[in-house]
Amino acid sequence: MQGKIIGNISNTYKIKTQNKEYESFARGKFKKEEITPLVGDNVEITITDEEKNMAVIEKILPRKNELKRPKISNIDQIVFIISTKHPKPDLLMLDKQLAYVENLKIEPIIVINKMDLEETYKEIKELYSKIGYKVIITSAKQKMGIEDLKKELQNKISVFSGNSGVGKSSIINVLFGIEKTQEGEVSKKNKKGKNTTTDTKLYQLSENTYIADTPGFASFEITEIERAQLDKCFREFKNEIQNCEFVGCTHIKEQNCGIKKAMEEGKISKQRYERYCKIYEELKEKEAHKW
Question: What are the tens digits of pLDDT across the range 132-156?
Fold first, then answer.
């Protein structure tokens, strides 16, 4: 029998089949082969106790992709949620996240929640829409933009990601119409969100449509990307790299750089370019201390 892993707590896996859900353990062979079943995996199981809904995982079917943070597989898209204030939008982190998914060839959606500051969300939407990213404006409290988001989720497995306090759990609750996740509070003292989601789970929104709620990211590192490949993870850079005079141009100190020229001409956002430079230097520093 085949099913999908929709939850994992202490190596007990919740498997959803066509008709029901089973609590399941993985065969010992997976540990010997150093293979860990992940939420999102499609698996073959054997029922060990039908009355108690118990099963054992026999085989993990091939994965089309895999995220290390959070640990999840077979993702169609990642929904990055930011807010206009409390917490204020961290666009450096967003650009790291976008570079990360570009590297994995997973499609992102940017959701700007809490529409308090109109000027801020309009600027962010204009910047990322121009690059070619899908941007949806929502208000979980006012239930605005939720139907637009729901359409983008159909027939896909979507990971929801965002710093605590941006309203990620609130959006998920509104999508389902019930309280699916424990909603966090933003501390008024320091304006930082308290992390409330502790493990990764898949929630079924409709047939073939799943949402993964994941632990909030306090920081986000993209050490999987080599600094020499970072420019290929900035979508708007791709057509301009060919205009660089030097092969292997870092787009930082070189003369006759196609990226810098495109920025001067207004084709590339100066802010995005500056964040690229910051991320590049971070990767360079990490690579220098790797060994």
Answer: 999 999 988 888 999 999 999 999 9
Q: Is there a contact between 279 and 271 (Cβ–Cβ < 8 Å)? A: no
How many other C-beta atoms can be found within 10 angstroms of the C-beta atom of residue 60? 18
Write the single-letter amino acid at 131: I
Distance of alpha carbon 14 from alpha carbon 39, whole angstroms: 9
| Cα of 160 vs its chain's centroid, Å | 6
Identify the bridge partners of residue 161 per DSSP, sorted by sequence position. 80
Closest residue by Cα to residue 111 from 93, 133, 130:
133
Would you say residue 187 has pLDDT above 50? no
Give the pLDDT band (50/70/90) at residue 1. Answer: very high
Please tell me the number of Cα atoms within 13 Å of 156 on its side-chain side: 18
Q: What is the pTM of this model?
A: 0.84
Closest-CA residue to 43 (of 21, 62, 22, 71): 62
Residue 97 sits at the vertex; the CA angle it makes with 93 and 99, to the nearest 5 degrees, is: 115
Q: What is the pLDDT of residues 240-267, one digit of tens each?
A: 999 999 999 999 999 999 999 999 999 9
Q: What sign for the dihedral angle of Cα 101, 107, 113, 116?
A: positive
| DSSP calls for 30-59 | HHHTT----BT-EEEEEEEETTTTEEEEEE
